[in-house]
Amino acid sequence: MAKFLLSFLLCLLINFSLNGQAKTILNKEYIDAQLEELRFNTKISDAEKEKALFSLKSQSEKIGYRWGILKSGRRIIEIYEKQNKNKEVIKLATELQKIDAGPEADRTMANLYRSKALALGYLGLDEASLKDFKTAVSYAKKITDSDIRNYTLSLSYSNMTIYFLNKRLENATYKDSIIAYTKKSIEAAQLINGNNKEITLKKKFDMISFSYTRLGITDLAEANKPGKLQSAEKYLTQSLNIVNKYNLEAEDKVLLMNQLSWLYLEKKEYQKTIEYANLARDLEKRFPNPTNRVESFEFLASAYTEMGDSKNAKVYMDKYTYLKDSLRITEKNNTDYSSNILLQDSKKTQEKTSSIKIIIISVLSLLALLFITFYWKKKNKIAHKKYEDLIAKINHEKQISHDEPVSETYNKVNKSNASVTITDETVKALLLKLKKFESSEKYLRKDLSLTWMANSLNTNTKYLSEVIKVYREHNFTSYINELRINYIVKKLYENPIYREYKITYLAEECGYATPRVFVNAFKKEMGFTPSYFVEQLKISAQQPVYS
């Protein structure tokens, strides 16, 4: 009897174990089947897909099915990417990156790191972004299927340019990195054979088209340099030809239409600028993206301004300003949120750190924060005082005459510091020429030099340097900087549209070869940056005027 009971219990345990295994296998198969069905089902909305995917992710977590957790989570991230939900991408990707599903997950892991890196880049968290991009590339290189590997690498290289785009104003060499990684993206895409049913030739050429658009944008940013406008047109035309040949209907086409609008703005063909910007707007309604929309508004406002159509220029400038401000607020909130996610994740990985070390770091951080806050407030207060003084000076100068006779200016100058003997007649003649030079705006020339100016004023460099030193109280460089900075300050103060231009454009407008030199000259002359000046002017413009 005892043997019978023992055998019965043993059979019961085996049967229970097998049933449990069958259930687990059945659940995994069910999850995989549901994921595939959702993947290719175009009849349900993204909201319904998201809900279903979260349910599958939850089921995968209950049975410990790592591959199911990763796949369902990755599909959710794809939906978030289409909706520009960067903070949600970062949060979910950070969670999924901790799951080890083995070599078969190399592609998924590459895309998780790539998506998170891209979201971090959009929010300006550059170093964290670059770190994840490098990890994405390392996973992509391990993918066994050549078409999938090359497509994933092409995406990663293309997306990685966001890091160099964000940093290009800090270092001019980053512009070369944008070009290099864009070309690496093209090279990887060109290796795709189209043998994989998922990585179609349409996907291949969509990647190549986008990369040509990116190269066109890089050249358009330097449209004033010889050959750059022609090069930009070549790349954008190549992209457009690919789009038309393969009938590509992706969001990237909106970007292309906007860049063609920019191209014709630079070529002063304003009707074409408007035509392509409107094409971009029509497409953007199918692929909603406020970043693309704000770019279309900018080009439309600029084109109508150049054509003298003030009514339409105002309509689109108002739309541009409103949407741009909304994007800034959203971006700041998303950046703060995402920074907290990264910080929390970092803290979880350091749980073994001793409590005393945490206390020391916290105290030091608090002291550093207090110091930075105090320093920032003091610096901001000084900058604002200088801003107020500048505005008061501008308003004062508008009320008085600028036509002081040269002879009076000459008689007032203390010539005790003069190191070169020049006759009074020569000085008076040179001062008259300087006054004409200052009103002619020739100081905006990029090739301006002391020698060129001396020849232009029919004098020699020694006399010119001396007169500038004694009667303008500057050396040649600081004299030209003062004229250029005063010129752009006046433009920014009097013409609100200049406040919407990029720093690169403002630098070129007042004669500087690079934005960095312009920013340094502006800060040295005014005591604050051009960005701060623009920001304060916008704040002042929004404040109500009481009579």
Essential attributes:
547 residues, mainly alpha
What's the helix count?
Answer: 23
State which percent range the strand residues make up: under 5%
Shape annotation = elongated
Percent of residues in helices comes to over 70%
Number of strands: 0
What Rg, in angstroms, do the CA atoms define? Answer: 31 Å
**What is the SS-derived class?**
mainly alpha
Low-confidence stretches: 9-24, 334-339, 401-409
Taken in chain order, the helices and strands follow as HHHHHHHHHHHHHHHHHHHHHHH
The largest sheet is: none
Distance between the termini: 107 Å
The average pLDDT value, as a whole number, equals: 80
Structure explained in plain terms:
The protein has 547 residues and is mainly α. The protein has helices spanning 2-40, 46-63, 66-82, 86-96, 106-122, 126-140, 146-167, 174-190, 201-220, 228-246, 252-266, 270-284, 290-306, 310-348, 355-399, 406-412, 424-440, 450-456, 461-471, 476-494, 503-509, 515-526, 530-542. Helix 4 runs antiparallel to helix 5 (106-122), helix 6 (126-140) runs antiparallel to helix 7 (146-167) and helix 7 packs antiparallel against helix 8. The termini are far apart.
Q: What would a concise description of this structure say?
A:
With about 550 residues, this protein is mainly α. It has helices at about 1-40, 45-65, 65-80, 85-95, 105-120, 125-140, 145-165, 175-190, 200-220, 230-245, 250-265, 270-285, 290-305, 310-350, 355-400, 405-410, 425-440, 450-455, 460-470, 475-495, 505-510, 515-525, 530-540. Helix 1 runs antiparallel to helix 2 (about 45-65), helix 7 (about 145-165) packs antiparallel against helix 8 and helix 7 packs parallel to helix 9.
